[in-house]
Target: Metalloregulator ArsR/SmtB family transcription factor
Amino acid sequence: MTSRPSAASSSDPGHQVTGVAIGRDEAERLAVVLKALSDPTRLQLLAMIEASPNGEACVNDLTEPLELSQPTISHHLKILVSAGILARDKRGLWSWYTIVPDQLQTLRALLPGPTFLRNER
Amino acid sequence: MTSRPSAASSSDPGHQVTGVAIGRDEAERLAVVLKALSDPTRLQLLAMIEASPNGEACVNDLTEPLELSQPTISHHLKILVSAGILARDKRGLWSWYTIVPDQLQTLRALLPGPTFLRNER
Model:
């Protein structure tokens, strides 16, 4: 691997990648949000909350459609709140969950592929 | 938890969540893509490939800026290829990697928050 054909050489200036396009801190912050999202149940919970009439739901609204226990749903909601994707509002005995737009907007802006994303706007 | 105040009741028709807004299959497929993305090094690799002059890079272009070994970079690139986020084109001795727009566009369309995403357009 010490020699390579010049036609495909990565030392060709036209191909050279010169730096790190996203800093480590930003990449780590973004990875935390993506990891919180990367679970099918959590994606279904978010879609259900977003689709609910007032854009909010409490744990009892979410258990039956997904056929999961309240502790399981609560566990997933907690992860989404910790990642800043959901906001929790305690009213009386119940906590209501809404999607925080900021975190997902930031994610969308930072997702690789800014060129084609820009072209779409 | 058997009684709750009617003002905050989830059985209020205005608050009722009636179904599953994303099917399980779709959620599982999306979760696989998100999981592949949820690593800071992989996010940095994608950003570097996207920012490179021709939108493509080979493993040697990527090792030095990130100060990681070639096997480590290759491991991360393989995960991104498996998830359909990167395409690999072997030319001569080297493999060149480009971002596949489709997978990220689908991800973006399916990400929770369609209401505010629609409002932005």
